Amino acid sequence: MNNKVIITIARQFGSGGRQIGEKLAEKLVIPFYDKSIIHLAAKESGINEDLFDSADEKTNHNFWSAAAVNTSIYGNRISIFNEMPMNDKLFLIQSSIIKKLAFESSCVIVGRCADYILKEDPNIISVFIHASEEERLYRVIHSYGFPDKDARNIMIKTDKKRAAYYNYYSGEKWGRADNYDLSINSGAAGIDGAVDLIIKFAELKQ
């Protein structure tokens, strides 16, 4: 692939989205980012990494009222930024890191509203990975190692948290097909098949 490409992956818990992202980055020989963004954001901002971890994909209901008067976390409205709840500060800092990574080079980014944050980037390909409940439960139990009795509840709660985070900060609907360039059933396509589909789409787009 000759041109720059930014691939963002949103995913249902247990769908194998992270694994698809890792294999995709490996195959394209480009950087892969998921929770490593937390480390980068902590390093650049000087905020303790534990705070990013504790606030990861959690929302605050005052975000948009503050964001309306705070167009840049490094701009003239820095005093407003300082008054914002911590979760919202961390979201804006992570957003700045994501934009910086996408500007620097081709990459694959999993989660963190990256598709919304980078929606104006002409090089973006946004992907949503999903699968049937049965297929996801199997992966949660046998690949992720959660106990049978807890797996379904963990899966439901994780997806609710991801949906709430995305819906809140983007104002869009998490998992809705028309919010993404590609929506792939990893149960039908398989992990490697999903990787190949994304690469094929990227080649067609270029």
Strand content: 5-15%
Give the CA-CA distance, first to last residue.
9 Å
In total, how many beta strands?
Answer: 5
The strands making up the biggest β-sheet line up spatially as: 2-3-1-4-5
The number of helical runs is: 11
Work out the helicity level. 55-70%
Overall geometry comes to globular
Mean pLDDT: 86
For CATH, the homologous superfamily is named as: P-loop containing nucleotide triphosphate hydrolases
Please summarize the sheet with the most strands: 5 strands, parallel
CATH architecture: 3-Layer(aba) Sandwich
Secondary-structure-based class equals: alpha/beta
Q: How many domain units?
A: 1
**Oligomeric state, counting identical vs distinct chains:** single chain
CATH class: Alpha Beta
> Order of SSEs, N→C?
EHEHHHHHEHEHHEHH
- CATH topology annotation: Rossmann fold
Q: What is the alpha-carbon Rg in Å? A: 17 Å
Which residues form runs of ≥5 with pLDDT under 50? Answer: 61-79
Write the layout of secondary structure elements.
Elements: E1 6-11, H1 17-28, E2 32-33, H2 36-45, H3 49-55, H4 63-67, H5 78-83, H6 86-104, E3 107-110, H7 114-117, E4 124-130, H8 133-142, H9 148-170, E5 182-185, H10 186-189, H11 191-205
Parallel strand pairs: 1-3, 1-4, 2-3, 4-5
